[in-house]
Amino acid sequence: MGAQQEKKPSEERKYRNTQNNTQTSQVQWGRAWEVDWFSFASVLFLLMFAPLIVYYFIMSCDQYQCCLMNPLIDLLTGNKHLSDIWNKTPMPTYRAAGIYALWVTFQVVLYICLPDFCHKFLPGYVGGVQEGAVTPAGIVNKYEINGLQAWIITHVLWFANAYYFHYFSPTIIFDNWIPLMWCANILGYAVSTFAMIKGYFFPTNPKDCKFTGNFFYDYMMGIEFNPRIGKWFDFKLFFNGRPGIVAWTLINLSYAAKQQELYGQVTNSMILVNILQGIYVLDFFWNEAWYLKTIDICHDHFGWYLGWGDCVWLPYLYTLQGLYLVYHPVQLGTANAIGILILGFIGYYIFRMTNHQKDLFRRTNGNCKIWGKKPEYIECSYMSVEGTKYYSKLMTSGFWGWARHFNYTGDLMGSLAYCLACGFEHILPYFYIVYMTILLTHRCIRDEHRCLSKYGKDWKRYTVAVPYRLLPGVF
Ligand code: NDP
């Protein structure tokens, strides 16, 4: 299950292309160079409304017991004014600022000062210095993979301080949730703005920068591909995993502690959400080296989308189920709880196995067994910006023969399980599955667009061999 990272991108035999770019269209792969009106409108919409959406959800829980409609009804009927809601919203506090600053600093220290030791004793785990994918400029970056270690140390310290030394209450995150949200926003905007300025004035690798000429698009989707400070502080790897994903399990633990404090017990739905999301988070860190080859790290540039998204959107909206269960403690019947657990496990299994199959296939250059047989694949080629030609393979068997993104399907099944754990009384916890469906469908289309410009006619052959995207026979 551990993703063995190759030392060189072994699946890609390369040679310098001397044929004067007969495939120039393929040189343009990577983030867009030009912005169409729809992308521009989406960017403006998200820049304006995404922070409001986060605020609206969290405020609805704080002031309206997680009922999404009631704030709107109150405002539309004149029962309340915006100022009434705003005046009841907790403001930033020095305490929250202190907690947040300490949190981020601690994660930075764990990230850059503690080389990984987990890979030395955990069989199958890939940590330490690893290489990322080839960038459009033909660069292979090195990363220090130590996320699992950071996660373990953080959680051991959390339990020790909250339950043994009693330095803080385990409900500390819930109790400061909205003040912390302002701090997360400040960091999210600061880091995105810094990344934009850095992209213009002191980029880490100018050849991997993209300027569309559209300020808002560049701010949101990023200019630099792999911004770094020094040799090791990689913005994408740090913000993608820490502080948001390390915090995810702590946030859920804090919600469980709050349930215990308020009701004297932790419901089975809260335990389910903690377990299923905990597995997802641990999977992320166990496979952090493998994530270097996923879209977030190896295709997306670093802008507001990743910077603000990782600081605010992820920790606040991916944890809505636990927050909801603090306000509505749902105790599921045994059959329902088991059904949800099974759905979550099946989803996770599909998600992990599909990702594993691709990883194994790419790592061994197709010299492996998928479901007991030699994998089938399509040979394809692409070019880097500098005109170097690379060869690669697209697998057409295993889960990758069922659909072109069956890993997303598994992810969606798991996401549905988290939501179902919250029962059917309110729609707020179902935001996650709606959002994930939109995100992964859009991502699927975005990825395929990129793969088409990267592989050209080879990608078309692949889509003929595997005609469905997410659900065989349906989509
Ligand atoms: P994938 O892991 O599916 O990677 C897509 C890339 O894989 C393509 O760009 C292509 O890259 C390569 N590829 C595509 N088809 C094949 C094939 N048949 N054989 C071999 N290689 C192929 O996508 P993501 O990086 O988006 O997702 C990784 C995981 O992370 C998924 O399981 C997803 O569900 C999860 N995820 C979760 C999110 C969350 O918020 N919870 C957000 C995003 C992702 P190449 O250029 O190398 O050919």
From TrEMBL:
Parts of the chain that traverse the membrane: 37-58, 148-165, 177-197, 262-282, 302-320, 332-351, 415-440
EC number(s) stated in the UniProt entry for this protein: 1.3.1.21
Pfam families: ERG4_ERG24
Keywords, sorted A to Z: Cholesterol biosynthesis, Cholesterol metabolism, Endoplasmic reticulum, Lipid biosynthesis, Lipid metabolism, Membrane, NADP, Oxidoreductase, Steroid biosynthesis, Steroid metabolism, Sterol biosynthesis, Sterol metabolism, Transmembrane, Transmembrane helix
GO function terms (MF aspect): 7-dehydrocholesterol reductase activity
Bias (Basic and acidic residues) ranges: 1-15
Region Disordered: start-end pairs: 1-20
Subcellular location: Endoplasmic reticulum membrane
Domain of life: Eukaryota
Chief location of this protein within or outside the cell: endoplasmic reticulum
GO biological process: brassinosteroid biosynthetic process; cholesterol biosynthetic process
GO cellular component terms, semicolon-separated: endoplasmic reticulum membrane
Gene3D superfamilies: 1.20.120.1630
Catalytic activity, as annotated: cholesterol + NADP(+) = 7-dehydrocholesterol + NADPH + H(+); 7-dehydrodesmosterol + NADPH + H(+) = desmosterol + NADP(+)
UniProt enzyme class: oxidoreductase
Topological category with respect to the lipid bilayer: Multi-pass membrane protein
Pathway entry: Steroid biosynthesis; cholesterol biosynthesis
Membership in a protein family: Belongs to the ERG4/ERG24 family.
Described function: Catalyzes the last step of the cholesterol synthesis pathway, which transforms cholesta-5,7-dien-3beta-ol (7-dehydrocholesterol,7-DHC) into cholesterol by reducing the C7-C8 double bond of its sterol core. Can also metabolize cholesta-5,7,24-trien-3beta-ol (7-dehydrodemosterol, 7-DHD) to desmosterol, which is then metabolized by the Delta(24)-sterol reductase (DHCR24) to cholesterol.
PANTHER family: 7-DEHYDROCHOLESTEROL REDUCTASE, DELTA(14)-STEROL REDUCTASE
Protein name: 7-dehydrocholesterol reductase
Origin species: Probosciger aterrimus (Palm cockatoo)
Gene behind this protein: Dhcr7
